[in-house]
Known about the structure:
- This protein is of the alpha/beta class.
- Helices cover 42% and strands 30% of the residues.
- It has a single domain (2-109), classed as 2-Layer Sandwich (Transcription Regulator spoIIAA), CATH 3.30.750.24.
- The radius of gyration is 13 Å and the shape is globular.
- It starts with a strand and ends with a helix.
Amino acid sequence: MRWTEVGKFKIVLVEGELSFENSKSVKREIIELCTKNSGDLILDLSDVSYIDSLGFATLLSVLHACIACKKKVFYVIPEGSRVREAMNTTGLGNILTIRESVKEILESEGG
């Protein structure tokens, strides 16, 4: 996992799997980034190949932490990806603010 800053956004790139093995550390790092820094968050999951129930719980925890800090969080999950299909199946696609690309968010949100 790595992150960068563009305008008012912290962009976090998560790669590989978001599962039992790493969800706790990923959640801790992202929530720390959200709570200790100014600006909104973009969580780029374009390169996540697998997500399990703990990965989904991590995404919800990040959402709740950002809401508590009065920050927005956007999730980049391309249409047609396995992660997007899982989001739609579980109903999380209706809860999270999902976009196709970082570029789309930056253009629409003035980043």
